Amino acid sequence: MKGLWAVFRREVLGYFQTPVAYVFIAIFLLVSGMFTFYLGNFFERGKADLEPFFSWHPWLYLFLVPSLTMRLWAEERRSGSLELLMTLPLPIWQAVVGKFLAAWLFTAITLLGTLPIWITVNYLGDPDNGVIVAGYLGSLLMAGGYLAIGSCLSALTRNQVIAFVLAVTVCFLFTLTGFPMVINFFSGWVPQILVETLSMFSFLTNFTDITKGVLELRSVVYFVTLIALFLSINVVALNIKKG
Question: Which of 3, 43, 66, 160 is 20 to 30 A from 32, comparing alpha carbons?
Answer without folding.
Answer: 160
